[in-house]
Amino acid sequence: MSFLISTACVRLKMPGVAKNVLMQLAEMSNDHGFAFPSIDYLCMRTCWGRSAVIEALNFLEEQKVIAPNRESGRNTTYWVTPENWAGERYPDKAFDPSASRTRSPAGPVRQTDPTRPPAGLDPSAKRTLVSINTNELNTPPTPKGAASGFAEFWKTYPKKLAEAEARKRWDKLAPDVALQARILQAVRVQAAGEAWLRDAGRYVPKASAWLNGERWLDQVTDAAGGVAEVAGVVHVEGSRGHVEQIALQLGIKAWDAMEQFPVYKARVMGAMAERQQARAA
User: Fold this and answer.
1) DSSP annotation string for 51-118
2) What is the pLDDT of residue 73?
3) Which H or E element spans position 35?
4) Does domain 3-84 have CATH number 3.40.50.2300?
5) What is the rounded distance in angstroms from the CA atom of residue 6 to the CA atom of residue 31?
6) Where are the extended beta strands (E) located within 142-235?
């Protein structure tokens, strides 16, 4: 939309349909006055019929207010040229709706209050006053990570690697207070487990991978060989937690992303089957 073209066109005094079509062309033109609407689009914008819009375009072309270009043979483009209008124009002062003169012509112009209703206050109007909570305005923003609980998780997790990636996983998970407590409990239990203590924590997964795999559901063994279980955890047979629980019992290292999990699962279950066959023999 070109404000310059629209302002120039609004002062032209002409028949209503032609003026309506011209103002729509001005609103769709750029600052050079170039526009390319279709007849159907102008009908939709003006709410006039096709014949009325075409007649208005012919009038504007005859008055040289628009210059159509039909060279393409398909879509007509228009140059809006309000400076070529030879008819009457509205004076500039007619377009100051806020000005009213109640004194002599030599006196100053009184500007009306735009916020005041023209006939005074409406007694039927209902006004609802909303008080501003100044405490919210004066409260400093919460540091990133503090409200979500990530800071406490990162402080507790033993392997400080790829914090930004872990934060993304945490934000995507968006755990509530109960789940945060369960995650922290699982981290503390697993940090004391045999798998994470082996080789000075070599097999502790990255925090992002741990969160992505929902590893707080795992059942782990402690350093003494007993089961250290997080309250409420039940592993489905064949799940990753179940497979890794068997792997820990067999002394196989925990699964990592270097090996596809189906391959790892087949290897663990195969080892378990061999142990069962050896015991049966």
Assistant:
1) HHHHHHHHHHHHTTSEEEE-TTSSS-EEEE-GGG--S-B--GGGG-TTEE--S-TTSPPEEP-TTS-T
2) 66
3) strand 34-35
4) no
5) 9
6) 220-221, 227-228
**Total residue count of the chain as it appears in this document:** 281
State pLDDT tens for residues 2-14. 788 888 888 888 9
Cβ neighbours of residue 156 under 8 Å, at least 6 residues apart? 184, 187, 188, 191
Question: Each residue of 224-243: pLDDT tens digit?
Answer: 444 454 444 445 566 777 78
Task: With a cut of 70, list the residues of the chain below it in pLDDT.
Answer: 1, 72-74, 93-147, 219-238, 279, 281
- Residue 229 makes CB contacts below 8 A (sequence gap 6+) with 189, 219, 220
**The dihedral sign for the CA sequence 74, 75, 81, 82:** positive
pLDDT value at position 59? 92
Q: Is 97 exposed, middle or buried (0-12, 13-18, 19+ CB in 10 A)?
A: exposed
| AA identity, residue 8 | A
Domain boundaries, the chain: 3-84, 150-280
Alpha-carbon gap, residue 228 to 190, rounded angstroms: 8
